């Protein structure tokens, strides 16, 4: 397949790029503006396989159109977006313009240039604060921050676009909490300002932070801290390959991507201390707006409808791979 990856220099995009290069039978083009992406990751991946990189901002419709004119893409995997929930509450337009308007423009070009498959990085944040904590793809979507809303609107655009264009199929992947690094140590999460719990814990273990905060210890959970479904980046990456294959002989569909089990913030911190042997400083802070108590995926659909087989469902493995990667970063 001739595949376009947007945001391929980013954390998840680079791992999916790596998985495609290792599979070895696709022609892959990556675009990124390096807002939060890593040039080093792309340079490293040149040793894994051949791909084309084009520096381009998704808002640059003129350049984007030129790329579509000169490449005949069969599929697009769309990662490029802004991803910080708190920032989205203070700069909502920044999120709607990049995550929704730029995505709509990309979808429009995809249809105009006959691209048959579009895989979209959506998020568990589109579910908002679910009552039960465990969500299936049919659960109500009530996002409570502009980030989640910007992603949900793109889901709606994709559904309407596919309904009106029978040759255009989407695969919407709603990721849960993604963490870890590639097991061969080649790539991982580079962005120093990332707010993800396991990234922050590994930064604290390696002395890049003096301490880390736990936001809220009075939730109605087993130990008072939020519970999340942490998934290893390599299993998340392989889900994209499975859904690409699924779309070759099936209609558009939506999949949760998680393991279907949860760990509390305190459990993650305890495991990080055990895995690293470092007793780092943890500060109990007040709740942040917009954090649901529990968010766990019902991931049965991805496992039963596609050939996806998770191989790294272990919190220790996720944390140790993230830690090994963090130790390598300056
Ligand atoms: N990391 C998570 O836990 C998580 C969870 C749910 C959903 N997601 C979604 O997955 C996708 C990838 O997330 P990530 O963690 O890899 O983030 P990331 O910030 O590492 O990657 C995003 C990439 O997109 C690029 N980019 C952003 N705006 C662009 C633009 N206008 N033009 C060109 N390039 C642009 C950035 O430079 C970066 O390389 C995002 O769409 C995000 O919403 C991530």
UniProtKB/TrEMBL annotation:
It comes from the Bacteria. The keyword DNA-binding does not apply. GO terms for biological process: galactose catabolic process via UDP-galactose, Leloir pathway. Residues 3-258 form the NAD-dependent epimerase/dehydratase domain. GO terms for molecular function: UDP-glucose 4-epimerase activity. Keywords: Carbohydrate metabolism, Isomerase, NAD. InterPro entries: Epimerase_deHydtase (IPR001509), NAD(P)-bd_dom_sf (IPR036291), UDP_G4E (IPR005886). Pathway: Carbohydrate metabolism; galactose metabolism. Transmembrane segments: none annotated. Its EC number is 5.1.3.2. Its cofactor is NAD(+). It catalyses: UDP-alpha-D-glucose = UDP-alpha-D-galactose. NCBIfam families: galE (TIGR01179). Belongs to the NAD(P)-dependent epimerase/dehydratase family. Homodimer. This is UDP-glucose 4-epimerase. It comes from Campylobacter iguaniorum. The gene is gne.
